[in-house]
Every structure is written in structure tokens, then in C-alpha cells.
Design a protein that fits this description.
The protein is mainly alpha-helical. It is built from 6 helices and 2 strands, in the order ββαααααα.
């Protein structure tokens, strides 16, 4: 292990040679060592040191990245499903607006006719209540 130790203010800095860094990177890329095992074997203290070397010197540019490979029909299916989700979200928003408008209309009608339509809705009295409302409206 070719390293240079520099003492500054009581701290020790370890500098690794380019050839040492390349050796560690090649061992990791060949599968002989994991990053953690390389750190332990060679006494590399910095947590991100080896990752930096891999990014800088490594041939494996995709290390630590997720690559998703899809067939064309999968991409089409995903686009279709995303479009369907947007369509359903739009329909839900539209129905929520309609529901709010209907509820507001019922509140206004209840105040105007002094009747509780929600309470009477579905009851036998609802026909009577509606006929009373019609009669009041025609006056």
C-alpha cells in the first residue's frame, strides 16, 4: 500500500497513489471484493473514498444507479395506464365539483322552502314534502 501521511495540526491525512486507487477499483469491478471488504482489507477509513474512486477511475459508470430496461409494449402499457389514471383523476374531480354543487343547491332549497330534504329523502313523507314544495313554488 503506497501512502503518504501528512500531519497538519495533529491530524493525519492519508494520500493514496493513483496506482493503488486503480488497483482497488479493478478488484471491486472484477467482483473479487465488495466496497466494504476493500475498505477493511486496505485500511481505507473514509466512508465515501472508494465510491469516489469508482466514479473517477471505474469503468462501471452505472455503479449505484438503477437502470430499467423495458420492452416497447411495456412502455406503451405504462403510458396507457398513466393516461387512464389522469382520466380517472379528472372524472373524480368533476364528480366532486358536481357533488358540491348539488349539496349547495339542496342547502339553498332547504333554506328557501324551510324544509329538510335530506331528512325526508327516501322516507314515505318525501312524496308529500315534494308535493308541498311544488305547491309552495306555484304560489
Amino acid at each position: 500500500m503506497d501512502q503518504e501521511r501528512l500531519g497538519v495540526g495533529g491530524r493525519v491525512f492519508i494520500r493514496y497513489s493513483e496506482s493503488f486507487k486503480l488497483h482497488v477499483v479493478s478488484e471491486i469491478e472484477s467482483g473479487n471484493l465488495t466496497i466494504e471488504r476493500a475498505r477493511r482489507r486496505y485500511g481505507i477509513r473514509g466512508g465515501w473514498t472508494v465510491q469516489k474512486w469508482l466514479r473517477r477511475y471505474g469503468k462501471n459508470h452505472l455503479l449505484g444507479k438503477v437502470v430499467r430496461v423495458e420492452r416497447p409494449e411495456e412502455k406503451d402499457r405504462i403510458k396507457e395506464l398513466e393516461a387512464k389514471v389522469r382520466e380517472l383523476e379528472s372524472a373524480l374531480a368533476h364528480s366532486q365539483v358536481k357533488l358540491f354543487a348539488y349539496e349547495s343547491l339542496i342547502e339553498v332549497a332547504e333554506r328557501h322552502y324551510k324544509a329538510d330534504f335530506k331528512k325526508n329523502f327516501g322516507a314515505k313523507q318525501s312524496a308529500t314534502a315534494l308535493s308541498n314544495v311544488k305547491d309552495q313554488g306555484s304560489k
